[in-house]
Amino acid sequence: MTSSLALASWLVLVLSLVMAISTTRVEAARAFFVFGDSLVDNGNNNYLVTTARADSPPFGIDTPSRRPTGRFSNGKNIPDFISDALGSKPTLPYLSPKLQGNRLLVGANFASAGIGILNDTGIQFINIIRMYRQLQYFQEYQRRLADLVGNDKAQRIVGEALVLITVGGNDFVNNYFLVPFSPRSRQFSLPDYVRYLISEYRKHLMRLYELGARKVLVTGTGPLGCVPAELAMRSPNGQCAAELQRAAGLYNPQLVQMINGLNSELGGKVFIAANIQQRTNDFISNPGAYGFTTSKIACCGQGPYNGLGLCTSASNLCPNRDVYAFWDPFHPTEKANGIIADMILKGSPAYMSPMNLTSLLALDTVTTT
């Protein structure tokens, strides 16, 4: 009898622990919102009449369906890896008709390929979701969420959510350096242009804060002059294009400085800066250390370094994407995206300021318990 009671008590304890763990996981899940350009677009541009689309093969060749998803990748992009780390489903594009009901609780992806900090960036793509419009959609999303769960809970979901914003590279490659003597390059010297970009980006970040975002990952640009497209167009000897490298070298430190200033002004660690340039430099300068055989040649493309034009079914296509750092002339492979996402999650202060995502979420858990 005593042993039966002990066994029953033990079973109750085990069941209670299982239920507690399950509840903790559910409560730990948080919404995830994504803003920015093609590096993080999950398919919004599939719903737009624009040339900036990734909706045809061989995009998505390494997804379970082997079909294009709208991501500028052979498989996952950075938001997908972060969703995995959060234990959440991937965020749906905001324009997807599937983003209804309880799927709103997961968050949404507002990013759109081709956009920049400035409204005149990517004008050649015509119909894209510029930053001001992404933020308007975020407001609209919150109204839809409030209709689903009520205003108080909607505000809590947004305040506890993780936000990723990746934008800025196009303001150089698809604006300032797009053509010789571009309008912006005639208006600004490069240092002045960078300062102008930072001041405009600050406005976007403050608007995110005003809309309730309190945990915002902000990525800098990669080494702009080292992508296959720029090597093909600007580098006769395979060296990274100097002026674009100079642009990234000016922009990224000022972005971190601006973010630190915002955090001081707001009295907290609202914004987290991710040094994408340094991490990408790591595998560009030493590709073998990361399992790559090349960091210069794109897997999919044509011309020198497979860096000219678009990735299409008629392009050269490598048989093993895992040994290439770049998928197409501008975008990383799934494997490279995973390396960058791992830096966001676990990176040292050399890469993440003031802390990495794992530390941020741990701090948040301690604060809320």
Automatic annotation (TrEMBL):
GO molecular function terms listed in the Swiss-Prot or TrEMBL record: hydrolase activity, acting on ester bonds
Family matches, as InterPro entries: GDSL (IPR001087), GDSL_Est/Lipase (IPR051058), SGNH_hydro_sf (IPR036514), SGNH_plant_lipase-like (IPR035669)
Pfam families, per the entry: Lipase_GDSL
Keywords: Hydrolase, Lipid degradation, Lipid metabolism, Signal
GO biological process: lipid catabolic process
Highest taxon listed in the record's lineage: Eukaryota
N-terminal signal peptide: 1-20
Similarity field: Belongs to the 'GDSL' lipolytic enzyme family.
PANTHER family, per database record: GDSL LIPASE/ACYLHYDROLASE FAMILY PROTEIN (AFU_ORTHOLOGUE AFUA_4G14700), OS02G0617400 PROTEIN
Protein name: GDSL esterase/lipase
Organism: Hibiscus syriacus (Rose of Sharon)
Top-level taxonomy: Eukaryota, Viridiplantae, Streptophyta, Embryophyta, Tracheophyta
